Amino acid sequence: MSSSSSDDFADLESELLAISSDESPDDEEVEVEEEELEVEDFENKRIKRQKVEVLEEIEEAQGSTSLGALRQESGASINDDICPHPASVGGMCVVCGEKEVDGSAVPFGYIHKALKIGSQELARMRRADLKSLLQKKKLYLVLDLDHTLLNSTRFLDISPDEGFLMNQTDSLEDIQKGSLFKLDSMHMLTKLRPFVRTFLKEASDMFEMYIYTMGEQSYALEMARLLDPGEVYFNSKVISQSDCTQRHQKGLDVVMGADNAVVILDDTEFVWSKHKENLILMERYHFFASSGRQFGLNFKSLSESSRDEVESDGTLSAILKVLKRVHQSFFNSDNEANLMSRDVRQVLKSVRKEVLKDCKLIFSHIWKREELPENQKLWLMAEQLGATCTTERNQSVTHVVSLEAGTDKAHWARKRGKFLVHPRWIEAANYFWKRQPEEAFELEPPKKP
Amino acid sequence: MFFHIVLERNMLLHPRHFGPHLRDKLVAKLMKDVEGTCSGRHGFVVAITGVESVGKGMIRDGTGFVSFPVKYQCVVFRPFKGEVLEAVVTMVNKMGFFAEAGPVQIFVSNHLIPDDMEFQSGDIPNYTTSDGAIKIQKDTEVRLKLIGTRLDATEIFCIGTIKEDYLGVINDPGAAV
Ligand SMILES: [Mg+2]
Ligand SMILES: [Zn+2]
Questions:
Q1: How many Å is the maximal CA-CA distance in chain B?
Q2: Which listed ligand is nearest to A76 at the C-alpha?
Q3: Average pLDDT along chain A
Q4: Could you read off the pLDDT of A316-351 as tens digits, one per residue?
Q5: Chain A residue with Cα closest to B149
Q6: A134-331 and A356-441, same CATH topology
Q7: CATH superfamily of A356-441
Q8: Alpha-carbon distance B17 to nearest alpha carbon in chain A (angstroms)
Q9: Which residue from A12, A230, A236 is facing B93, i.e. has the nearest CB?
Q10: Where does A134-331 sit in CATH, by number?
């Protein structure tokens, strides 16, 4: 026999002794025993075998108190001094097997329900993971589900005008081909956003992707199955409500990616209060009637008017182009040597600044005169998109942004041949990361009396 | 490790079952109640192999139910620290891999996978040696050693290692194709 097998035996012995020395009153083992009213019968001669004797030893040891000295010979106690207990599963250290609890450990329920990772180990893993990811020329992409990649509605919220959809759902046998699914167990209809399959496929060449939703785990996993029936993209990377470490907030603390390499796509800004710089805010996908109502929108939904976003020219296709720009700019910049210290947040910032970079805006009647323009959301948004904002009319101004066509500045714009646009022109540029054609947002001149 | 042991249990039976088939009823109920359960002390009850004896029934006051002390032989499976087991890999991720040996779930962390095996993400995540000769992915059979066990009322969970001599892949489904 090899020496390792005798070690094994020593460990087995120590295990038996560990059982004996466990005196904790709330020990589960004791509870079970009382419940089941089980009594061994080791006196039974007929079935007594060698293996039974091992159990018998457990029994005998249970009453004994003189075994503490022996226990110190076990391998496990040596580990106590050197093992950093980096992570645990079910309360057991994954390296030494000891029952250690690190108070600062973060639960990673989406990888395994009983897994917790200590902060140092997490930092180590993040670094190692980032390094290998960057070698593959990839970054991290965190994807929200509802209104970003898809839209769901409960059966009971389906409006009469969209009821016809119930008979037009696609087969769950061939998920890859469909986009509208009826999920009987969840009493739900789900519509995938047009272009999402191409989006995921192309994004996966540039990013390691996570799903991150405020929905429940069962819902999240079901949606992951619809988006990724081949389990190619999101294996062990579906984060849901119960994984969040802070209520009503999504955090990158449970993502195995370093903050400086994560891009987030989400239609809800406030949940990412700590990671705004990583966020690309998505225009909401409202397919079903109930979805728009939730947000106080009262016009006909896409479903009710039998329309949808255009596959090749919708939000996801526009955002994919942005992601390609960001990815290219991250890996192609001149400071090739220092990949690890690059920051995708800076890249996002500078890519965003190119959107309206040659525009000089002046605002008319959008906020009250006494309010500071520099604090206005629209002003800040335009500046983030690279526009110059001013309060002075002069020749260098390119656009007048106004809610009404009859203001002084609006007249001035028409006279001087400047663009006169609705504020939605800026909002649209903000969603698509692209300067929008002004004609689509032009204000009609006021009718002559 | 498997053990063949005798256990005793008090079985409650409704009076409608009293009759010539009382014993059969008791045995059927016993199997239903006990097989597949887990006790912290004995481990997982794999199968009942025989009934030793059925004691005298006692009427429970106020209910009409009768409780019978039943002694039965059964095969139990209980993992021990230090035990070497063969298991099938069920999930692989960057933390390590999960494997199953019958009713027992085992986690092997990347710390306890040999250093020359590296994690590869992708549609079939796996740990592979740099020369590609050895690969651990879903459905791979591995021999591992348990370094920690936790038994509770419903499940058995263990921590394992393959970072020792004679441990690791014993059958690689990926290599065959
Ligand atoms: Mg959302
Ligand atoms: Zn440890």
A1: 72
A2: 2
A3: 82
A4: 999 999 999 999 999 986 666 588 889 999 999 999
A5: A97
A6: yes
A7: BRCT domain (3.40.50.10190)
A8: 22
A9: A236
A10: 3.40.50.1000
